[in-house]
Amino acid sequence: MNRHPRLVTDTDVALLRSLTHEGSVVAASRRIGISRDRANYRLSRLRRAFGGPVVEGVRGGRGHGETRLTPLGDRIVRQGFDAVELLDARPLAPPSHSNLLRGLYHRRPAPTVLLGKGVHLRVAFPAKDGEPVSVMLDPESILVARGKFPSSARNVLPGTVEEVRTGRRALERTVVVRTGPVRLRVAVTEEPVRQLRLGPGARVWLYVKATAVRRVGRAPRALTRESPRR
Questions:
Q1: How many domains does the chain have?
Q2: Which residue segment(s) compose the domain that 18 sits in?
Q3: Which site from 60, 144, 175, 228 is most exposed, i.e. has the minimal number of CB atoms within 10 Å?
Q4: Per-residue model confidence as pLDDT tens digits over 60-103
Q5: Looking at residue 169, what is its pLDDT?
Q6: Distance, CA of 227 to CA of 71 (rounded, Å)
Q7: How many helices (H) and strands (E) does the chain have?
Q8: CA–CA dist 129, 6 (Å, integer)
């Protein structure tokens, strides 16, 4: 059996959790501060990643219909975004758009993956001290800014924009940023690219939560694949 981790961000979990209260994508997306199109994109992305829907439409009720979580979606909410490596028996590779990085794990003074030449990432998973590890970082979990500001993110990395690529959708953009020896892809929309002037050569700061750095190549024993409701 081939096991491949699937990535879920805290925004995905917040959206699913909001759906359990609101019962509609429109209301749920408004509640967490994203657009309806962005919410639908995230739900479609989860469906493709896990091979089944995380939400389903139900007829009836006060609004003559509502959107509910499937057992798979409910499981993601219950596990939380710190335990999102659901198992999939299909031999698929990690998503090509994610940042795949390799480095050495250090336990002290805090769990850290050293990527080389002084670049390191604080992480929230355990490993053996000095062990080579591979980690995946979703471009949507990275915040880009032109200056530093107070944040709970454990990782604040200085970088330089190398290029801005057009995404699959009309208003989506991918900003490629170099920080030391590492190149990271950051998913944004057209508006912040214009407002922040994120052109080649722009100096930026990247904010990444430790919980957003996922280890690749390990499958938690407590999780097993659950088929979506038919």
A1: 2
A2: 10-79
A3: 60
A4: 445 456 888 888 888 877 765 443 444 332 333 344 467 889 99
A5: 65
A6: 8
A7: 5, 12
A8: 25
